[in-house]
């Protein structure tokens, strides 16, 4: 079921700029008993994306009311919050488009995520590579064609998910989540300065690690660096944190640091 600016609808205008050009941004939110989890962080990431794209900000208090209207009332669920620039303009030019459009859809919580959280995930390595795009790096804009191709690539390989590299063979993320690994007492995660999506849970992991006095290093890392890790985990807003127990033929234990982050973040 879909809500467009708070009204149940089944169709979107053919002149909508997100439909035509991917002109907008979105975020996917876990809900608990009808309430969005980490709402303020989702709003902040959407505000940053829309500001970059020069799209007018909706009334976020009203948007929250729409999200709660759409969300599953009992237990865990999910909501996709999608903002389009709206309709109008000529060709690529957004001139004259003043009113953004908010589309909200709800869905059931993926049941296999609970197994991933407990037992871990096995990852492949995508053959396709992410392009370098510093202008949009870190933001979850509506043009997701690279991710569509990457997900198809990993599914054809027969993996649950897969690691994505950029054109320079540096690790970026998985097809659906941010990636962290531990060596000794240091936490590593790829930089989001050239491509990739910087997720809400990634931000929380970094904040928690720094509060605990753990050293966090951001950078451009190759696969050899990751394969020599002591423990690996992945995260996104719906999944929370899940251990990575295998990357192709390399196995990893479920580490104590991963479990600690799960305890502090997944229970929220």
TrEMBL record:
Lineage, top-rank taxon, reads Bacteria
Task: List GO BP terms, alphabetically.
Answer: 4-aminobenzoate biosynthetic process; folic acid biosynthetic process
Q: What is its EC number?
A: 4.1.3.38
Per the entry, which co-factors are needed?
pyridoxal 5'-phosphate
Pfam families cross-referenced by the UniProt entry: Aminotran_4
Q: Identify one Gene Ontology CC term for this UniProt entry.
A: cytosol
InterPro entries on file: Aminodeoxychorismate_lyase_IV, Aminotrans_IV, Aminotrans_IV_CS, Aminotransferase-like, BCAT-like_C, BCAT-like_N, Class-IV_PLP-Dep_Aminotrnsfr
Metabolic or biological pathway: Cofactor biosynthesis; tetrahydrofolate biosynthesis; 4-aminobenzoate from chorismate: step 2/2
Keywords, ordered alphabetically: Folate biosynthesis, Lyase, Pyridoxal phosphate
> Annotated Gene Ontology MF terms?
4-amino-4-deoxychorismate lyase activity; pyridoxal phosphate binding
Q: What is said about its interaction partners and assembly?
A: Homodimer.
| Alphabetical list of NCBIfam families matching this protein | pabC_Proteo, PRK06092.1
Q: Which family does it belong to?
A: Belongs to the class-IV pyridoxal-phosphate-dependent aminotransferase family.
Per the entry, what this protein does is: Involved in the biosynthesis of p-aminobenzoate (PABA), a precursor of tetrahydrofolate. Converts 4-amino-4-deoxychorismate into 4-aminobenzoate (PABA) and pyruvate.
Spell out the protein name for this chain. Aminodeoxychorismate lyase
Organism expressing this protein natively = Vibrio comitans NBRC 102076
């Amino acid at each position: 079921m879909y809500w467009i600016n708070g009204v149940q609808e089944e169709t979107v205008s053919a002149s909508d700029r997100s439909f035509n050009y991917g002109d907008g941004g979105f975020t996917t939110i876990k809900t608990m008993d009808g309430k969005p989890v980490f709402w303020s962080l989702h709003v902040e990431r959407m505000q940053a994306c829309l500001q970059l794209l020069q799209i007018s900000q909706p009334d976020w208090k009203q948007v929250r009311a729409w999200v709660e209207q759409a969300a599953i009332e009992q237990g865990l669920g999910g909501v996709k919050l999608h903002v389009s620039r709206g309709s109008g303009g000529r060709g690529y030019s957004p001139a004259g488009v003043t009113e953004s459009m908010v589309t909200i859809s709800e869905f059931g919580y993926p049941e296999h995520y609970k197994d991933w959280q407990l037992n871990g995930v096995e990852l492949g390595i995508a053959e396709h590579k992410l392009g370098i795009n510093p202008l949009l790096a870190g933001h979850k804009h509506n043009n997701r064609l690279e991710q569509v191709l990457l997900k198809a690539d990993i599914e054809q390989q027969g993996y649950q998910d897969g690691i994505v590299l950029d054109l320079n063979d540096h690790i970026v993320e998985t097809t659906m989540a941010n990636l962290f690994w531990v060596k000794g007492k240091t936490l590593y995660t790829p930089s989001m300065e050239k491509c990739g999506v910087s997720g809400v849970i990634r931000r929380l992991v970094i904040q928690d690690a720094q509060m605990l006095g753990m050293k966090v290093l951001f950078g451009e890392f190759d696969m050899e660096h990751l394969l020599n890790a002591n423990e690996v985990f992945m995260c996104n807003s719906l999944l929370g944190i899940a251990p990575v127990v295998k990357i192709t033929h390399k196995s990893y234990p479920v580490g104590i640091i991963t479990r600690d982050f799960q305890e502090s973040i997944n229970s929220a």
